[in-house]
Structures are given as structure tokens and as C-alpha cells.
Design brief:
Layout lengths: L4 H17 L27 E4 L3 E5 L2 E11 L4 E9 L5 E8 L10 E5 L3 E7 L2 E9 L4 E8 L8 E5 L4 H16 L4 H15 L5 H18 L7 H6 L7 E6 L4 E9 L7 E7 L5 E8 L3 E9 L14 E10 L2 E15 L28 H15 L12 E2 L3 E2 L1 H10 L9 H4 L4 E3 L9 E5 L6 E7 L9 E7 L3 E6 L3 H6 E6 L9
Parallel strand pairs: 11-17
Antiparallel strand pairs: 1-3, 2-3, 3-4, 4-9, 5-8, 5-10, 6-9, 7-8, 12-15, 13-16, 14-15, 16-17, 18-19, 20-25, 21-22, 21-25, 22-23, 23-24
Helix pairs in contact: 2-4
Amino acid sequence: MRIKKEYLVALVIAALLIIISQQSPKPEDNESSTTLAPFTSTTESVKNQLYFLPPETIDLENTSLELNQSIKASDGAFSEFLNITNSGEKPVEFGILEIIPRVLGGFSDVTFVSTASRVQTLSKDPVVQYSEHRLGRGEKSSRQVNSRKTANSSVIHLFAPLLSSEERQRILPLLETVANLSFTPLEAKAVQQHLNKLMNENKTFEEKLNETTAYVRVLESMKSRNASDKNVSNLFPHLPDYIELTVSEENPVNSTSFIVESSFPIGKPLMKFEGDLTDYARSGYKELPENRFNVSLVVDLWDVDFVDGLLPLDGLEGKLVISFASLLYKEKEIPVLVSVVHKDLMGDYSEEKDALSYDDKLIQSPALTSTCQKKAEQVTYEAGTYAGRLNYVFGGLSLSSGTDCSGFMQLIYRKFGVSLPRTAAQQSLVGVPVNKENLYPGDLVFFKNTYKRGISHVGLYLGKGKYGKCTFVHAAGRKRGTLYSSLCSSYYVNHYAGARRVIPACVYWA
């Protein structure tokens, strides 16, 4: 079938138009007014990622501008779209200063698409562009910035009343400094919001310039690796001195929250837990206006298996380590203490009772029978075999995979037919109390106020070994595991709470 000449020409023209429309405009001082379309790259090797930044409102010249930004990034291309709406009651003329982060390339990498009436490239390395716009009431405008490079960053758009040539040149060095700093999209958005606030205050240009200069100097400090810098230290928001929570068998989940605020865009909170909290706590945050965050902390023991009707631990001790995206080289630690309030399963006994008080039935010395000596030697030898090779696992109850201090005592004595309750506080109620000067191998030694108030730690007295008569063995903590320690060291002397004898053959009443 023959094709008419005019149809063939039409097809060729259509093909040429398609090819032209797919090419990005070359970087010129005068921008193209073509329809906005995403920049594409033939080298793209990953799926495009499209995400939206929080909307922004700018009060300018007795009216309001609504901004909506979105970013499309791929392996070999970057496009940022900006939609502007005059939501006020009056027409407005304004200028836009666009700061292209250096990580997105130089002048030869970047192109602009918009309907600006006047455009000037203030700097080519890094790229800083100035354009002038006029919007009537309810009118909309769009801008697009394309780059042949891609990065986890964002263009910073500054809106201001029309600037003179001299004013543009005076502010340019500050904008170039900002372009040389590395910001994530959310950080760049926070910087943009604060700079727009400074640029549109009812002040002289000189006053605005001075305040912008101070702010940019702070941004430089925030991105500095020198965590001791006074500017950075002053920027770090106030945090709680400590956090306390209480859980129980009836309510194994508890939470708290606090507000973090700063006068500068410190970036999103970055949080982690250390110590016993690692497996049982989680954190989160909700972003609030004006560089504020509601930080939340949840302690969740819901999935912890009960032992004899109780949670197998007395509490949790650790730290919430917090830094911020714009203050990566500085962090602070908040001590976190979680107390476990157990149900009363002891009948007439109570954890609030002074279980280690001494009365007229206080044991003075063991009955040195062969049975007592043999049993004590067996218990202490068995416990000593785990020193240096048993991991500490908070809430754990295994002599192979790990256990905590009270679980260690329970498991050792279980091998010799002695049943002990699960927690240190409960174990301090069994057997008979012993004076420190009358300690005998196999006695349980207790310590108070180590990570929470009251009886909070327990070990097994050995009476000989690495520290002579002061030696005891215990599951000390996550970092140290199970080891020998000295009752005579200042720490254990200060926290010593008493001892209990639980080997039946060694009990002798004075």
C-alpha cells in the first residue's frame, strides 16, 4: 500500500517532536518555559524513587505562598519539582534564590525549567540561581531543577522581595557556603524554612544579612566534626537527666515521652539503646512545627516468659543514646531505669520487709560437719567453673546460652536440690541471715542500689581464690559476663546489703 507524501512528512515531524521533548534543555541564563517533565537518563539502572517533602507556607508582601516540593531520584538522574500557589488575596512579585548542593553537580550538570520573567545565574560553582516571578491572586507557578548527578539531598529555595543586583552579590557568599554543606532532603527543608523566615522578616536588608550570616556560621559548626565546638554544644537541645519507668506482671508494658526543641534545624533524632534495654525497649518520634520533636520510649516485657508466676528479672538498666541528623558528631546519653514490681507470692513475706535485718536468731557459724563442708565445696566448685565463660543475659535462665545474677544462683543451687526463687529480692528472703564476718563458702551475698533502689544484685561467696577470703562469683553484667570479684573492693563494700545461708546442712542456730 502506498503512503501519501504528506502523511509521511507528518510522521517524520511527529517523531522529531517526540525526540526533542525528551531532551533536557541546556544550561542557559534564560530558562525554558516548556512543560515540566522529569529528567530521564539512559544510564539509569535502578528504579526511580519519588518522595514528597512537607508543605511550606511563606508570608510575603502581605500575602501567602504555598510551596509543595517533590523529588525524583534514580541512579543517574535527579529532578526536583516545586509548585507555588499564591493563596493570599493580592498579587505579588518576588524573587527566588535557588541553592544547588554541590553534591548534585556543577553548572554543566544542572538545568532549570520554569516560567520566570527574569533569570540570572549568580554562581556556576556551586550553582546559585536567581529568578523573578509575579503571581496574581490564586495563580500557580511551577519550577523544575534537573541534574545528571544524583544524591540524597535537595535544592534549597529562598523566597524574598525582589532583590537589587548589589543585594544579590552581598548575600551570594553565604549561599555558596550553604551549597557546600551536605544536607539530607529533610535537613535542607529545615534550613530552607529558617532562611525563608529570616529573609521575610519586617527588617532592613542589612539586618536580614547579619542574621543570615550568623545562622550560616552555625550551620557550618553543626556540620563540623569538632563535637566540642561551643556552637554545637549550645545547639544541642536540653534532654531529661534520667528516665524512670515501672512495669509489673499485670502491666508489663509502659511508656513515656518528652519534647525536644531547638531554635535551629538539628535534624531528626537518631536513637539507640545500650545495656539491658537493648532487647526490651524501642523509641520513636513525631515531628512537630518549629524544630520540635515528641520523643517516645516504650519498654515492653509482654513476650517475656514468666517463671513461677513472675517476670524473671527485677529491673532493667541502660541508656538511651541520642544524636541528631545535623549534629552527627555529638551525642548524649540519658540513663534509663526500669523497675519491676512483682506480685506478692510469698504469703506473709514482703519485699518491703527488711529481709536482711539481724535478730536474736542470727547465725554465728556453720555446723562444720562433713556433710556441710562437702556440699559447700560442691556448690562453690560448680559455680566457679562458669567464671569467664558464661554470658550475662538479662532475664536469661540457661547455663549454656546465658543468665543473669539471680538466675545463676537459682540454676547452680537447683543442681544440688535447693530451690530458690527467681529474683535477687526474693532470694534475700530465704535461708537465714549471716553476719559478714561469719560468711561461709556457698552463702548468697546481696547488694543494693546497683541499678535500682533496694536489693538488686546477688553473688555466691567462695571464701578463697583470686581475691582470697573476699572472693565471690557472680553474673556481673552484659559486658563482663560471669566472673570473680572482691567483696573488699570499694564498690561492693558500698553496695553490700547482707548475706543468706541456704545450704540446709550448713544451718546452725546460735
